[in-house]
Amino acid sequence: MELYLLLGIGILLFCLGVVGFLVRTNAVVLLLSVELMLNAANLVFIVFSRYLHGTDGQIYVFIVMAIAAAEVAVGLAVMISIFRLYGLLDISKIRLLRG
Amino acid sequence: MSPALAYMLPLFPLVGVLLNGSAGVRFNSKTVSLVACAAVGLPLLAALALLVSMAGLPGDERVLTVTLYTWISQAGFTVSFGFLVDTLSMTMILVVLFVGFFIHLYSIGYMEGDPGYRRFFVYLNLFIFFMLLLVMADNLILTFLGWEGVGLCSYLLIGFWFEKKSAADAGRKAFVVNRIGDMGFMLGILMTVLLFQTVNYQELHRALEGSHGMAVTLPAVTALLFFIGAMGKSAQFPLHVWLPDAMEGPTPVSALIHAATMVNAGVYFMCRMFPLLAQAGIALPVIAAVGAFTAIYAALSAVGQTDIKKVLAYSTVSQIGYMFMAVGSGMYMAGMFHLVTHGIFKGLLFLGAGAVIHALRGEQETAAMGGLLKRLSLTSATFLLGLLALAGIFPMSGFFSKEVIIWGGFERYGLFYWFLGFGGAVITALYCGKLFGLAFLGEGTYDGSIHKPGYSMTVPLAVLGFCAATFGVFNLPMLAGKTIFGNFMASTLPPAQTGDPAVSHALETAMLLIVSIVVVVVLLAAMRLYSRRRNYMVQLEENNAGLMNLLFSGFRMDHLHDALLVGPFKRLAAFSSTVLDTIIIDGLVNRAGAAALAAGRLFALLQRGTVTAYALFIAAGIVLFLGITLAVTS
Fold first, then answer.
1. A10 vs chain B: nearest CA distance in angstroms?
2. Structural domains in chain A?
3. Which of B273, B274, B325 lies closest to B298 in space, CA to CA?
């Protein structure tokens, strides 16, 4: 039962991230939502690693954390650039790639 | 007869081309001309040595075959790269090298100071190389290689001054008209391969001897296809239109290629194929008819020409017509003899015309000359020798060669044919007299200073003039049928079939006298009229301007070609460019592009530009494919 509980928390976190990503328009919040989804995945990794008595999953968590840190660094740099250009961070108003 | 000598003949001109063509950039003009002349002079010596050793052999051993290597070998069908030197090719080799050498010599003076001096000599040597290949080849395909090679050189040399549009056009015209003939030649080769499974001349000769169990139609078709090729190269009606235009080239080129050697290749080739012609039935009368018609037609056109070189060009067409008359009467020896004498005297005439043009600084209109006899005595004297030979005046070489043809035609085809030959000879005398009277006799109309020709130009004139006057002795004794030239050729070419000798000798002599006397009278009259009573003749020509224009334009053959061939072709090209190209091909390409663009626009609608939409698509995609995977696996 403990396993299902923890996996449920992971799914909940992930769905929070997805919904947040789709609903919110502030770019910084979008980054936060991405972090939520990543950490939900991390949680699932750790849960299974404990459940299966292995260490592989925990190693992946560290890799994911490193990548997430790098992604946030790049993402924030992009945010700053966008803010300097447009003076706002509302992504529903920035549609440069529209076909 | 040593094979080494035979190899040497085409080797020297090729070396000359390579040397002048590559290292020649560093040579001065003297070295260039020295190399070029040596490349023709040395093989001339080799050819003379071959001739001497050949003359020492009995008749049936006068043939030398050498094979360099096997060129094509395919399932029992082989083509070798080999040479066949018999008395026929020996004669032609000597004409090519002898006249060719003196024309090279002449070009040193004529082309002096031309910016394309080296290029000119490279082309000339290349021409000699290909001409020797054509003449010496022991099979049809190698002959065809030389045939195309001389065509290429002709094109390059007609358009030598290519910055002049008329010269470039004339070169292109010569090339295109020759393609028509070459198509006939190629089809003839194909027919030969199909019929006889060989292209080697000696094997063909053997295959055609005796009974080969073949209907007469197939050899006749083959022979006529070859004759179409010969008509293109030898400028016979209606494929002659390129030759008058070819006079745009430098005059030594006109002398070498368009009078003495290349244009005679058709006659030579027909003689080479005589076993086929003998079996071909209808072919001989057709050749004779085309030759006779061309002889008269071109002679008439020559009367109307005002440009000294064009007179000679039409005269060449006419004289080659005579050669084909001889071939068509089965008198291959007479045809070859006229080829040799014509090569000499027409080469001489062109060189003389070149000397006149050179002296008058580019003036080519006969009306603007006059009285040149006093101012250019040597040139005029040799020119007169050439004209007398051309008109067939006794005892010049042309007399011996032409009378035999006219007489032989009578023996084979009767009186009407004799009248054609006779008429052609009279018209020839007329334009010869007109040309000499206008340009060399009478009052001088050119007042500029005269540019005297140097030794390199006068020596060839003198040598060729001497030969033009005396070469006829080789056709002695004329009436006996066994002439010196005939005996030499007897190992290669068949004798003409003659009628009853006892009856014909008296008749022959009588007809010969008639032709000779009429020709002399016409020639003298024309000379006198056009020199003493020049104003009267000019007035007469102006009163008949319509007729003279008709003659001048060669009976509007160019118009006819334009209307029948060039015009429809241009319309076809216009149709292709507007309808086929613009509407169909461009249309297809443009439609394809437009379709791709439209598809792009359609899919661009998905590209909303909002991050949320992209994320939604990703999520939807994942759900979709997960669903599919689950549905498939369960």
1. 18
2. 2-86 (1.10.287.3510)
3. B325
